[in-house]
Amino acid sequence: MMGREFASAAARWLHLPEMTVRPEIVALCNRTLDTPRVQWFRRHVPTLRQVTSDYRELLDNPAVEAVYIAVPHHLHAAFYTAALEAGKHLMGEKPFGIDREANADILAAILRHPDCFVRCASQFVFFPAVQRIGKMVEAGAFGQIIEVNAGFLHGSDLNPHKPINWKRIIEYNGAYGVLGDLGPHVCTVPFRAGWVPRNVRAVLSNIVRERPDGRGGVVPCATWDNATLLCEAEDPASGSVFPLTLRTARIAPGQKNNWYIEIYGTRASVRFSLNEANTLQRLEYVPGGEATWQTVHLGHEVAYPSITAEIFQFGVGDAILQMWAAFLYELDRGEGSATHSAALGSPETPGRFAGCATPEESVLWHQLFTAALESQATGTTVVVR
């Protein structure tokens, strides 16, 4: 799915008139070649020159400079490390390793190959409302942070007759369950803001314990379906400690694909949800005045300029295009050119929140998810370390 979304983004690159670099898809690897999806790539990607079922053949191809790897979590460490050993730049999928040990192996490979540029895919930070929120964080607009809530809610697994797939099997998805699948998306904005959990009390739920196997039988479904993490986090700007609540759910009645964030501060507050993807709720408080929520309707206000007029609405395909623009922008101009722009002080850089998730941020979410599993097992609050 995400591979085809990348192909679509590459085909739409003319939307980004100020980009000085562009992607060209030259190779494709899939376990099975005789499938409708591989045929889709053959039909729609004219630059494609290599199609193989052996990832080692793709990595041996000198025409391949960077790879996008979207495979089940248990393959992350082996595939990501192989790509780095082959000298390829890497866009990987979350959670960047099935567990903390696998993540450490990937980070060690990155250190061995400092010339390889590495990022993790997560598109939701590129929605215009979230970019506005990021600029507010950079400007210190919230004052002292009171509370932050973030989450990612799906509803499709509410159907108990939905056949099992690899994301519901521990051997492939990992012990994190829904945390490994959706959790990195939820962590992106708080961690980029510097709001890293100090401890966590986790409540994890396995709601549908059996699912059809697609062959007429029923098999165990042992992964966590939903997770709520109540954390203490420290605001580096003020030194204050506040509650940070992170929710991930595959079984959320009434939801389709809802990523959301709420930030409450002493000077300003915001609320954003993909259910109202082009709307930002904002409250700016003046001492002695009314604390009144305003609704701001946003258009195509993006980090990487587009030919699409700002008056038009923004969608998930646009977010994926912006995410790939961020990856290639930093690859072209040097690591940190987007995510550390505030430190650089350059008006040409798009902002600290306009970069893809970093390997260092993946270490933080693995620390959190590992502590969450311990918290669930012991029924206690666990220090994140």
Your description of this structure?
The protein has 385 residues and is of the alpha/beta class. It has a domain at 126-303 and 358-383: Dihydrodipicolinate Reductase, domain 2 (2-Layer Sandwich). Helices cover 31% and strands 23% of the residues. The protein contains 11 helices and 16 strands. It has helices at residues 2-11, 36-44, 55-59, 76-85, 100-112, 128-139, 170-173, 178-193, 316-333, 341-344, 359-378, and strands at 27-29, 50-52, 66-69, 89-92, 118-120, 145-154, 197-205, 210-212, 218-220, 226-234, 241-249, 257-265, 268-273, 279-284, 293-297, 382-383. It has a 9-stranded mixed β-sheet. The chain has a 3-stranded parallel β-sheet with strand order 3-4-5, covered by helices on one side. The protein has a two-stranded parallel ribbon with strand order 1-2. It starts with a helix and ends with a strand.
Task: Output the keywords.
385 residues, alpha/beta, Dihydrodipicolinate Reductase, domain 2, three-stranded parallel sheet, 11 helices, 31% helix
How many separate helices?
11
Biggest sheet overview: 9 strands, mixed
Strand content: 15-25%
- Biggest sheet strand line-up: 15-14-13-12-6-11-10-7-16
Give the % helix: 25-40%
Q: In CATH terms, what is the architecture of the domain at 126-303 and 358-383?
A: 2-Layer Sandwich
CATH class annotation of the domain at 126-303 and 358-383: Alpha Beta
Q: CATH homologous superfamily of the domain at 126-303 and 358-383, by name?
A: Dihydrodipicolinate Reductase, domain 2
Radius of gyration: 21 Å
CATH topology of the domain at 126-303 and 358-383: Dihydrodipicolinate Reductase, domain 2
